[in-house]
Amino acid sequence: MSKKKIVLAYSGGLDTSITIPWLKENYDADIIAVCVDLGIDEDWEAIEAKALASGATKFYNPHVAEEFASEYIYPAVTGNLRYQDTYLLGTALGRPLISKYLVEVAHKEEADAICHGCTGKGNDQVRFEMGIAAFDAEMPVIAPWRIWDIKSREDAIDYAQAKGVPVTSTKEKIYSEDENLMHISHEGGDIESPMNEVDYSNILHNVNTPEEAPDEAEYVEIHFEKGRATHVNGEALTPAEVIRALNKVGGKHGIGILDWIEDRTIGMKSRGIYETPGVHLLMEAHERLESLTLTKETIRIKGILSAEWSQLVYNGQWFSMANEAIRAFMEDTQKTVTGDVKLKLYKGNIFPASVDSPYELFDQDVSGFGEDDLFNHHDAEGYINVITLPTKIQKRKGLI
């Protein structure tokens, strides 16, 4: 009988690094490490060497930054997705794409199971397993954090040291971090308690604190075609290149720092610190352009569906009927979202400078205080009489 195979979602971080020796101890199987690159600068040869040295038999490293940007980040921007009106969903958007490639490798290798290193308290266990099920509903999933005796990240560091697995985490700086093209998240350690004021300069990797940002403002101009950013400062770029360019200028000026308390999928609250400079800029510019090109009713309905879609994505339901239906609506609204948005960046702040579109619904003659041939000021009297009628009836009946 051939030896079993387990595909491991591998990052090279603490949790997945110790998972390889643990799997080899507890399963008679070859471990195939899959590290999906969602667009970060990394020494991939070093990560592969570490995985193999830790006991993996094979290493896969698909580079899918453009797919991530075009098929996940850009749709989120068109939908103005913010979980609880705040979080831009950088981690949540990456997990379904990673799941897709985990299953792809598992099928190629004829693997017996897929393993992830997510904790039993977190959101990502749900997102990975929802994503895996969408591509292979029968694939067994191994979740060591729900099985092993390791109870904390301190325990995990002790286990790594005992097994000779090199990790960068220490008990003094024990943050759990997730990085992709869109963002970096930081959790754990002194971040956990809402009572702690943390020193952002010791935590942030790609974004300056406002204190460190330049003393002079800078302008950035983004061109959109049907809701998708195609140019930055006049230069044609691919979706991933757009985000990289905006990450650079946004990070320089302290844009996209979020320190907040969120409600996890499984019910508990947690505190996280996020760096999302480029997509923060992209979202602000996109919403500014929509305010000029979409009708009031479209914006209102988009807002309702955006809140629902954000919940779906946060909870791991990217591959769902509801997700596809909402996405189709959102994409249809983008037919007129074409134009240029200029933003002014200064010490963590974004100020609108200008917005222009061939499909703009703003009419200076109608919106101004002067006379025009489309609107008659006397028409407002009839409108007010109609809209105030329910209030007048309630007052007459003594109900208010």
UniProtKB/TrEMBL annotation:
The keyword ATP-binding applies. L-citrulline binds at Y87, N123, R127, S176, S185, E262, Y274. It is found in: Cytoplasm. PROSITE patterns: ARGININOSUCCIN_SYN_1 (PS00564), ARGININOSUCCIN_SYN_2 (PS00565). Keywords: Amino-acid biosynthesis, Arginine biosynthesis, ATP-binding, Cytoplasm, Ligase, Nucleotide-binding. It catalyses: L-citrulline + L-aspartate + ATP = 2-(N(omega)-L-arginino)succinate + AMP + diphosphate + H(+). One of its GO terms (cellular component) is cytoplasm. Gene3D superfamilies: Argininosuccinate synthetase, chain A, domain 2 (3.90.1260.10), HUPs (3.40.50.620), Single helix bin (1.20.5.470). GO terms for molecular function: argininosuccinate synthase activity; ATP binding. GO terms for biological process: argininosuccinate metabolic process; L-arginine biosynthetic process; urea cycle. Its EC number is 6.3.4.5. Pathway: Amino-acid biosynthesis; L-arginine biosynthesis; L-arginine from L-ornithine and carbamoyl phosphate: step 2/3. L-aspartate binds at T119, N123, D124. Residues 5-166 form the Arginosuccinate synthase-like N-terminal domain. Residues 175-393 form the Arginosuccinate synthase C-terminal domain. It is an enzyme of class 6 (ligase). ATP binds at A9, Y10, S11, G12, G13, L14, D15, T16, S17, G117. PANTHER family: ARGININOSUCCINATE SYNTHASE. Homotetramer. Belongs to the argininosuccinate synthase family. Type 1 subfamily. This is Argininosuccinate synthase. It comes from Suicoccus acidiformans.
